Amino acid sequence: MHPDIDRVLHTETEIQARIATVAKEISARFGSEPLTVIGVLNGAVVFVADLIRHIDAPLELAFVSASSYRDGTTSGRLELDFLPAPGAIEGRRILLVDDILDTGRTMASLRTELLERGAREVHGCVLLDKPSRRVVDIDVDFVGFSIEDAFVVGYGLDYAGLYRNLPYIGVLRAELASTTSA
Ligand code: 5GP
Ligand code: MG
Ligand code: MG
Predict the structure, then answer these.
(1) Out of 16-20, 46-50, 75-79, 113-117, which region has the weakest mean confidence (pLDDT)?
(2) What residues have CB less than 8 Å from 27, skipping those under 6 apart?
(3) Which of 34, 63, 77, 94 has a CA 20 to 30 Å removed from the CA of 51?
(4) Residue 152: what pLDDT?
């Protein structure tokens, strides 16, 4: 285990097994109708890459950049930046994929923005959910794991840009994370 990690919440094996199950639920729900999967950069890159390989439905992959945790763990103002995805939003059924649902602001803003841009349906999928931290009332359709209120890294999630490459989800040692969360 990485020396900056206090404890592992979900191992690589657990994550992979859970993703296969969630992808099966997604395939069952969306069947043969084309789907646009939009990953939220950068945190969801690892998750979305593994997830789509288990989804059995015709899909396109696009990305949006949404950053609120600019310097560490403090929640700031949300900035959205859609990468060009011509024809992939208007009239489409969208699966919005993020690493973690915390206050819910990111998913709520993105859902509103996508509907404004003409998306027909917007469904949410997150690897992790911290229900105790919710500020905005939002439901996502697919959740990997519900977790306690702790700052986690690994499997795409960063602290100040680092730890995304860890294959597991771990809690960062408290003395390293300045968790003045909004
Ligand atoms: P929300 O808008 O729901 O408050 O926050 C969602 C975003 O905050 C996630 O996409 C992620 O970038 C970041 N975030 C929230 N909680 C954590 C956490 O425990 N660890 C890390 N690394 N990022 C988090
Ligand atoms: Mg994020
Ligand atoms: Mg981050």
Answers:
(1) 75-79
(2) 54, 55, 56, 57
(3) 77
(4) 97
Structurally, at CATH architecture level, domain 13-150 sits in 3-Layer(aba) Sandwich (3.40)
Annotated catalytic residues are 102
Q: Give me the residue spans of the domains in the chain.
A: 13-150
CA distances from 111 to 15, 22, 114, 166, 174 (A): 26, 20, 5, 29, 33
Q: Of 16, 37, 47, nearest to 126 (Cα)?
A: 47
Degrees, nearest 5: CA angle 16-150-131: 80
Residue to mutate (ligand 1; options 5, 40, 157; most atoms within 8 A of CB): 157
Q: Which of 144, 175, 141 is nearest to 157 (CA)?
A: 144
